[in-house]
From TrEMBL:
Name of one Pfam family that matches: McrBC
Domain of life of the source: Bacteria
Phylogenetic classification of the source organism: Bacteria, Pseudomonadati, Bacteroidota, Cytophagia, Cytophagales
InterPro entries: McrC (IPR019292)
PANTHER family in the cross-refs: PROTEIN MCRC, TYPE IV METHYL-DIRECTED RESTRICTION ENZYME ECOKMCRBC
Record-given protein name: Restriction endonuclease
Source organism per UniProt: Adhaeribacter rhizoryzae
Length: 270
């Protein structure tokens, strides 16, 4: 303002103002860190969607200098308070460059939350365990098909989590808690039972296993439901709900525990 009064007021150029500014430098340290981090994550990732997004970042930063960055470079970046949202990106880059995990011990630290669809994790874990420890069953994962036809076209797609043709068994994982509602259903959702009945009728199988993770306040370890129908040709469909403990803290014995539990339910009627 001092320069304005001295140079503009006295000369009658009231409409002009003095200002200081710096040019926008696109090829800066922040963008170099982001580009390098995106490049190394592209090489490590096996997910095509993630790879596509990482390649898009690299394309946007094509004019930025390619250089090797380390986690300490993140501490050298001074961000304008107006762009505080960039601090999250910088912090995440530092996590990746440091090969670190999220810090849960510092209450003042803000961390990203990675939300995993645990129903898929649980399903994948159970199938992989069966495939590794019971290879003789030749289990199949995500076996698809259609429930009906309409005007010659397949409709109402079905997908079995795990199919064991040798045992004529459909195994479906449910990552949920079976609350005892005192209604005789033992916490099994009615829609889940309808779903399993449709799977059994379509496949022509009579044994269905619903597998739940063992959790506190879960209802009993075993529940059996019998479905009798003319469609089953006199042999009822048996739908069994079982809990399996995958949270044992004795890591050394966890594999053995899960093995014994699965062996009991997979070979029950054989």
């Amino acid at each position: 303002m001092a320069e304005y009064f001295q140079q503009n007021i006295t000369t009658g150029c009231w409409q002009y103002f003095q200002s200081e500014y710096e040019p926008l430098v696109y090829d800066n340290l922040f963008n170099r860190i982001v580009k390098y981090t995106a490049r190394i994550l592209t090489e490590l990732s096996s997910n095509e969607i993630n790879k596509g997004k990482l390649l898009q970042i690299q394309f946007l930063l094509d004019e930025v200098t390619d250089c090797v960055c380390v986690s300490s470079d993140c501490d050298k970046v001074k961000l304008n308070p107006l762009y505080s949202d960039l601090a999250d990106i910088l912090k995440l880059c530092k996590v990746f460059l440091s090969n670190l995990t999220i810090n849960n011990d510092a209450p003042s630290e803000s961390n990203f939350c990675f939300l995993l669809p645990m129903e898929y994790v649980f399903e994948d874990f159970i199938f992989s365990f069966i495939q590794e420890h019971f290879p003789e069953l030749n289990a199949k994962e995500q076996t698809g098909g259609f429930l009906a036809k309409r005007e010659g076209k397949n409709v109402f797609k079905i997908k079995n989590d795990v199919l064991i043709e040798k045992r004529k068994l459909i195994l479906d994982t449910k990552y949920k808690i079976r609350h005892d509602a005192k209604d005789g259903k033992d916490g099994v959702c009615q829609t889940d039972l309808y779903q399993m009945m449709a799977y059994a009728v379509k496949r022509g199988y009579y044994d269905v296993l619903l597998l739940y993770p063992e959790r506190p306040n879960n209802v009993g370890p075993e529940s059996k439901f019998t479905i009798e129908s003319p469609f089953t040709l006199g042999k009822p469909i048996q739908i069994e709900a079982q809990n399996i403990d995958i949270t044992n803290h004795k890591i050394g014995s966890l594999d053995s525990l899960i093995f014994q539990q699965l062996k009991k339910v997979l070979y029950k009627n054989s």
